[in-house]
Amino acid sequence: MKAFVQTAIGKFEERDLERPEPGPGELVLRMRAALTCGTDVKLLARGHARIALPVTMGHELCGEVAAAGPGAGGFRPGERVVPGISGPCGRCADCSTGRPNLCERGHADRTWGAFAEYVRVPAGVVAANLHRVPGALEDEVAAFMDPLASVLHGWSRLGSAPSTLLVYGAGALGLLWAAVAARHGAAVVVAGRRPERARLAERFGARFADVERNGPAPETDAAVDCTGDPAVWRLLSESVRPGGTVVLFGGCAPGATAAFDAARLHYGELALVGSFHYGPAEARAALDLLASGAIDPRPLLAERGALADLPRFLAAQARGEGVRYAVRSGA
User: Fold this and answer.
1) What is the DSSP letter of 197?
2) How many structural domains are present in the chain?
3) Chain mean position to CA 318
4) CA distance readout (Å), 287 to 50, 83, 85, 132, 321
5) Distances 122 to 105, 110, 111, 209, 284 between C-alpha atoms, Å
6) For residue range 283-320, what is the model confidence (pLDDT) as tens digits?
7) What is the DSSP letter of 294?
8) Using 50, 70 and 90 to split pLDDT, how confident is the model at 331?
């Protein structure tokens, strides 16, 4: 089968690989649509602490069941599904206390390799975090389940809905944050360095702030980082009002550190809240929002194409020339 494999930092190539065979409890999907992601670009540029190279690239996909291993019952050949990345075990301390996103066993074998004709879904994901696609939902829209589920988890980390929210970063995740916050009645400002994203921000219920021209946005009840830049983490801690919350949502480079004004954190009673990944319930909620049309991510797609178009798509995304791209089988 055709697949794109990252071999080292800054290097990837198309390869002919053996089609995966499902082991016990596993499924193999035929990829129908897969999305480019900021994680793909970051992985190429700097690596990832949790991902060993070489690796078949991509993780946001919609597929159809092509083969099932022993014990992987309940899914029919040809059925459209969207897999989560992790498959939490449901038994560990994290799972039993409502933190399945942190389950170590769930992250030990992840759904990965979406930029290929066929994708193996680990048994843990099949058992806990594989979701049927409603009949009318487009493949590439269903593939947005993963980033939207991450945003829903981040929103839950706020605890209560803020009246005003500053989202730093105007990529796909930042704009999905705007859509979720706007649905909850928050006044949202998306801060970014690309003024051409202003219209997109408006479509997702937010006002755009050009940080290059106008500087930081005004004080806000809560703020979320979608850049993974430690300097932005500190900036946001200086942008929220006393009693405010900063959600540290964007993943930083391996070994990165961040420094904060201790007096401001202490006397202002600011909350710095980490947010990582999502659980199966948030994945189902995300797919429901997409299926209902309550959140429509299609304006984020700059172009659709074939698997062979992936190098061009990743290069364009790295230059900021599009928010997301979709590769489709048979395109």
Assistant:
1) G
2) 2
3) 16
4) 26, 11, 14, 9, 27
5) 12, 6, 6, 42, 18
6) 999 999 999 999 999 999 999 999 999 999 999 998 88
7) S
8) low
What are φ and ψ of residue 272, in 5° steps? -100, 120
173's CB contacts (< 8 A; 6+ apart) are 38, 147, 150, 151, 226, 249, 250
State whether 215 and 251 are in the same domain.
Answer: yes
291 within domain boundaries: no
Q: Is residue 317, in this structure, part of any structural domain at all?
A: yes
- 318-321's contacts with Cβ under 8 Å and 24+ in sequence apart are 318/41, 318/44, 318/45, 320/194
Q: Flag whether pLDDT at 214 surpasses 80.
A: no
Residue 282 lies in a domain: no
The last residue of one of the domains, among 243, 259, 274, is: 274
Using CA atoms, how far residue 51 sits from 126, 260, 272, in Å, is 21, 29, 26
Q: Give whole-number Cα distances, 112 to 52, 72, 262, in Å.
A: 12, 18, 40
DSSP-assigned states of every residue in 201-231: HHHTTEEEEEHHHH-SPPPEEEEEE-S--HH
Tokens of 93: 């301390």
In a domain, 10, yes or no: yes
Token pair in block for residue 114: 């979406």
Indicate which CATH number applies to the domain containing 305: 3.90.180.10
In terms of Cα–Cα distance, which of 208, 172, 171, 205 is closest to 189? 208
186 and 211 share one domain: yes
| 27 and 132, same domain (yes or no) | yes
pTM for this prediction = 0.96
CB 283 within 8 A of CB 126: no
Q: What is the residue range of 199's domain?
A: 149-274
Arithmetic mean of pLDDT over the chain: 95
Say yes or no: 242 and 127 in one domain: no
